[in-house]
Write a structure and sequence with these properties.
The chain has five helices and no strands. The chain is an all-alpha fold.
């Protein structure tokens, strides 16, 4: 698998958000390993979706993906994955644990795809004007804290 290239300054905040997404995946795995009630973990994933990931997807779709265009195969894949992840995060069925496992697996794979493949391609074709637009448009919000740190074993 190709290594990520040095991230353009305009895309660095998005990459940092990807790091937070990978931390979410670790917290899901850790919670399941510690046999935490899946409902507690699901509440955290719902909070993370609402406060962070949903807007992150919107920024990518409105300001970053258009650099390659919606007909690009990599963009089609990313959009399909965004749609699937939204379904998983807003899932309300009774099999919560299986849903959490799917979120963890699919979000990890999606972030790796964006960091290792998609963003490298975007950086190679983006103009300075396009990168400047992304930088001006995306203003990361301060990270909020979640009080129920179920992933910490006491």
């Amino acid at each position: 698998m190709p290594n990520p290239m040095k991230r353009a300054q305009a895309l660095q905040p998005i990459s940092r958000e990807h790091h937070h997404g990978l931390l979410l995946c670790w917290k899901i795995r850790e919670g399941l390993r510690l046999k935490i009630n899946p409902t507690r973990i699901k509440r955290y994933t719902e909070w993370f979706w609402t406060t962070s990931l949903h807007e992150h997807f919107n920024i990518e779709e409105m300001h970053i993906f258009p650099i390659l265009g919606n007909e690009n195969d990599l963009i089609k894949k990313a959009l399909k994955e965004h749609h699937r992840l939204q379904q998983l995060f807003t899932f309300t069925d009774e099999n919560i644990e299986q849903n959490l496992v799917q979120i963890e697996q699919e979000l990890t794979a999606h972030i790796r795809f964006e960091e290792r493949i998609l963003f490298n391609e975007i950086q190679q074709v983006a103009s300075e004007q396009q990168l400047s637009h992304v930088e001006k448009t995306h203003r990361p919000k301060p990270t909020k804290n979640w009080d129920d740190e179920y992933w910490i074993q006491l």
